[in-house]
Amino acid sequence: MEQNRDDKTHALERLAELRGSIDNIDASLVHLLAERFKLTERVGELKADHGLPPADESREARQVARLRELAEDSHLDPEFAEKFLAFIVAEVIRRHERIAESRES
Ligand SMILES: C=C(O[C@@H]1C=C(C(=O)O)C=C[C@H]1O)C(=O)O
Predict the structure, then answer these.
(1) pTM of this prediction?
(2) Topology, domain 2-104
(3) ipTM exceeding 0.85?
């Protein structure tokens, strides 16, 4: 009984420790995404200023191939890595379209 309580206390301590590290990683992800969006915003402005299209499928294909390889090397599911990139890129393109529209009006 006493042993069970010790085990559980230990498990709860370990859980809090792991969650602390997860919180740090989540914070890094948010910071990295914010930096990425600052850069893509500049790309969107550059494209709009020079009449370039918001999306670039050949660039995206190269990014997907590269990320899938990196994911495999890091033992991350490449399908997940691809979906994650697609989710971000879709939002970037939406923003580029908005920038282009605002230049037109
Ligand atoms: C940022 C760009 O615009 C779009 C968004 C991309 C991205 O978020 O990485 C990649 C290609 C484009 O479809 C770009 O052309 O580099």
Answers:
(1) 0.92
(2) Chorismate Mutase Domain, subunit A (1.20.59)
(3) yes
Which protein residues are within 6 Å of ligand 1, measured from CB? 40, 43, 55-56, 59-60, 63, 89, 92-93
Mutate to test the pocket of ligand 1, among 41, 63, 93 (most ligand atoms within 8 A of CB): 93
Backbone angles phi, psi at 47, to 5 degrees: -65, -45
Separation of CA 66 and ligand 1 centre (Å) = 14
**Exposure letters 76-101 (e unless 16+ CB within 10 A, then b):** eebeebbeebeeebeebbebbeebbe
What confidence tens digit (pLDDT) does each residue in 1-41 have? 678 889 999 999 999 999 999 999 999 999 999 999 999 99
